[in-house]
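Second attempt. The first submission of FAD:protein FMN transferase had a stray character pasted in from the spreadsheet, which I only caught after the job came back as garbage. Lesson logged: always re-copy from the clean sequence file. Corrected sequence (301 aa) follows.
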Amino acid sequence: MTTKSRLQTFGRSCSLVITGSGDNEDELVAAAESELRRIESKFCSYQQSSLVSQINQAAGTGAFVELDAEARGLFDFASRLWGQSNHVFDPTTRLLQNCYSEGGELIATESQLQQLLLIIGWSKLEVTDQGARLAHTGMLIDLNSIVCAYAVDAVRKLLTKKGVTSALIELDQDVATIGKAADGANWLVGVRHPQGARTAIARIKVNNAGFTRRGDFEKRIAFKGENFGRGLSPVDGHPVPGLLSVMVVAENCLAACGAASIARLKTEKAAMQWLDAIGMKWLAIDRDLNCHGPLAPGDGY
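This time the job returned cleanly.
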């Protein structure tokens, strides 16, 4: 028996497929939805009462916001990505997105960019036994991309503990699976063609694993006559000349998220060399809309 459920959470559509689980499908779906709602409410920056929003609201006041073990784990993960990316992955750069239009055009002056850069930097977040606080008024952090991957993994863990042996959890760019489909078929994730074709250019196997896509070639920034992704540098506020989109398959969704997040903030050549070195399966789309990687079409996967 297969149960399919779709709900809105994290501001996007989430699909849940559970196969061969017996007669308690409704209970499993309810438990999964409850876990998603819990994590969204606790960590998403657009939730006014979330822990992240509390830290943002207290920025510059000197007040600490208490962190429990779960929160410290997420902040530690963000700090590791910050370090591994040579400080280019920076959750405080959310402010810079206001300098670009929805269409990706720079709408701020260089002077405005420089003013914002004064209050940007993950190093300006202080985490102690008392909790976390931001040094300057106006600062904010946004951990949503990490939180989404974490939430998908959390649901996978919950369903596994409840005895589920076949499931797929898909939250927009993040996917986690348990086993294969009940009929033995592979869990597949489709990737559309960057040149605008509606058909998939690749169908990626994600069996008992996590998948993440970071960066969106369809929402690229046109900066100084070139294509850029929406990853913005905490150094100058300009788009990073890296890959437009990176997709990674890993042991879990958070690991895939970490690899994809770092890779898309490196220069294209450095990113692909780094992805090869870490040994995960990946597919990337460069600024000329070409595909690369072990999962790219024609690479035998």
